Amino acid sequence: MYIVLYAIIVIVTVFVFLVLIAPKSYEVNRSIVIKRRLSEVFQYLKYIKNQDYWSPWKRKDPNMKQEYLGNDGEVGFIVKWEGNHDVGIGEQEILEIKDNEEIKSQLRFFKPWKSVSEAHIRVLKLDRNQTEVTWGFSGNNPIPFNIFMLFFNFEKTVGKDFEEGLASLKNILEDN
């Protein structure tokens, strides 16, 4: 009887300890320099539909179903998607556009698990024909699901996808 009680106490203690030390939030960003004028880069980026050409997730499921609500390139535009197990089900909404500076959006994932992330794409003029693009997102890890982040390198996995997407974006914009 005491062994079972001690085992339960140990399990609960370990669980509480993991909840306390596990990250409560996440943030992933990657940047790349594109040899194009800032205004041209920003004009391309503000249209969410253009992500179909450079986003790594579109390549993970070229047959994903998409639905568009509103006017692309404007605050309030929403793209909904439903795809395979690699991309899941979710939607992205443009929340804010600061011309030639930043596009903020919200990513709402429904499957394979529910979560909400704040995404951004920022541009910075380096010189007349060079623009730095930073793509990233952040969010919160609700308890007890934050324990998962102790065993999964979110920064590395998602960061790799961002690097791949930005490299594709660079190829598209520098080849045009």
TrEMBL record:
Domain of life: Bacteria
InterPro entries: START-like_dom_sf (IPR023393)
Listed transmembrane segments: 6-26
Keywords: Membrane, Transmembrane, Transmembrane helix
Keyword Transmembrane helix on entry: yes
CDD domains, per the entry: SRPBCC_1
The protein's name: SRPBCC family protein
Upper lineage: Bacteria, Pseudomonadati, Bacteroidota, Flavobacteriia, Flavobacteriales
